[in-house]
Design goal:
- The chain is an alpha/beta fold and about 450 residues long.
- It has a domain of about 280 residues: Alkaline Phosphatase, subunit A.
- Helix content is about 30%, strand content about 15%.
- The chain has 13 helices and 12 strands.
- A hairpin with a 4-residue loop joins β9 and β10.
- α4 runs parallel beside α11 and α5 runs parallel beside α9.
Length: about 450
């Protein structure tokens, strides 16, 4: 993809914004991030051309709760979407509504919504391009690409656009697990044996965990059915192929953008809604606060305005999406949207100081995570087991330091930070409260 001719300044202070959004993508499931077990040329391209953030976190490692944060700019306990199959509060404006009403944008949505319907023709603040497809990525994703391509090449009018391309893959791994939940006597396709990735070194957990996390693992198909090491590896191999499927669609979308009249004045943001267990800590799927589910890939591209091929390590989260888009559009976010911030200053200067922390929740199970630059803290309501990890020395989260007296000050700082954070929350009706399991 040739972008050299795009690197001059654009005269328009209101850029177009293309939001490319996958579902259930592990933070390291991009070959340009150093993963040798898959090939993602399209995601590699935007990584080389844009700014990659290495410490982006979901607000909740579940589809609908995190999506509510992305599109409404608030924590799931505030949007009311603390689990799947719930409607967000009707009083909150979507980012599409806010851009349309306050910055003159044409806000367009194509693909999976999941708040609460997966596919819908009615999203507040957006024109919806209906795909007429179900939510199986191998069918839906190519239709999304073609629909967005048609929009990019047929659009008329002078107003800037905010276009969401919300893909399904690699979420199909959930269906794969259902079909392959029982441990096979032998590898289904023996010819792929040399290609299987190595077994995760963190498959077995030896440290203390909250009870709900242990129960979650024990209910995983792989754990319940005593998967062999080969079957765990086959699962990750299959997941990587699904990532490659959506990468191909993203590549077609990028080519469409570059061939359109809009490339010179378009910002591209690429991320996902949550990660995937991949056997790390024995998990499949989502709904846990280890990095495999809670951490996201995130890249932003704006030729001529942001560095090319840069890496930023500041802590950011899904809460920051709406303020970032508002900042690009030259407007302020809603006044009562207090907690997120625009990440553009970090993208423009990847060496700028990071925010002190970000917070994520497993709201349905009343869990919390506080991630600082050095440490990560995880705790659940009414459970005495706390977890504290040194993310610099132990990125795999294998040694729980919560009971180590050498880390008592770090533990207390994260506790105090969480207490202050919870005081800022304005809970939506019906959302179960988080209860601190320690004195405060």
């Amino acid at each position: 993809m040739d972008t050299e001719n795009l690197r001059s300044e654009s005269p328009d202070n209101r850029p177009n914004i293309l939001f490319v959004f996958t579902d259930q993508q592990h933070f390291n499931a991009v070959s340009a991030f150093g993963n040798p077990h898959l090939h993602t040329p399209s995601m590699d391209w935007i990584t080389r051309e844009g700014v990659r953030f290495t410490n982006c976190y979901a607000t909740d490692p579940v589809c609908a709760p995190c999506r509510s944060s992305i599109f409404f700019g608030r924590m799931p306990c505030e949007t009311g979407v603390y689990k799947n199959e719930l409607w967000p509060l009707e009083t909150l404006p979507t980012v599409g509504t806010w851009l349309s009403q306050n910055a003159g944008y044409r806000s367009v949505y194509c693909g999976k919504w999941h708040l609460f319907q997966s596919e819908t023709f009615s999203i507040p603040g957006f024109e919806v391009i209906g795909t007429g497809a179900n939510c199986e990525g191998n069918f839906t994703d190519s239709i999304i690409t073609r629909a967005c391509d048609a929009f990019l090449h047929s659009r008329t009018g002078d107003e800037p656009f905010f276009l969401v391309a919300s893909y399904q893959q690699p979420h199909d791994i959930c269906g794969w697990i259902d079909l392959n939940q029982y441990n096979a006597e032998r590898l289904r396709y023996p010819e792929i044996a040399p290609e299987l990735p190595p077994l995760s070194p963190t498959l077995r957990v030896s440290h203390a965990e909250p009870e709900l996390m242990r129960e979650r693992r024990e209910n995983n198909a792989g754990w319940k059915n005593n998967w062999s090491e080969e079957h765990w590896r086959y699962y990750e191999w299959s997941y990587n192929r699904q990532v490659e499927m959506v990468d191909a669609e993203i590549g077609r979308l990028f080519e469409s953008l570059l061939q359109s009249p809009h490339a010179r004045n378009t910002v591209v943001i690429f991320t996902s809604d949550h990660g995937e267990g991949l056997g790390r800590h024995g998990f499949q799927g989502k709904s846990v606060l280890y990095d495999e589910a809670a951490r996201l890939p995130f890249v932003i591209w704006r030729p001529g305005h942001l560095p090319q091929g840069a890496t930023a390590h500041q802590l950011i989260s899904a809460l920051d999406f709406m303020p970032t888009v508002c900042g690009l559009a030259g407007i302020s976010p809603p006044e009562d949207m207090r907690l997120g911030r625009s990440i553009i200053p970090f993208a423009a200067n990847p060496s700028a100081p990071s925010p002190e922390f970000v917070v994520a929740a497993c709201q349905a199970n009343r869990g919390r995570m506080v991630r600082s630059m050095k440490m990560k803290y995880i705790v659940f309501s009414n459970d005495p087991v706390e977890m504290l990890f040194d993310m610099e020395a132990d990125a795999g989260e294998t040694v729980n330091l919560a009971d180590n007296p050498d880390y008592s000050e770090e533990l207390q700082w994260h506790r105090d930070t969480l207490v202050k954070w919870e005081r800022e929350m304005v809970y939506a009706p019906g959302v179960p409260p988080f209860v601190m399991p320690f004195p405060h």
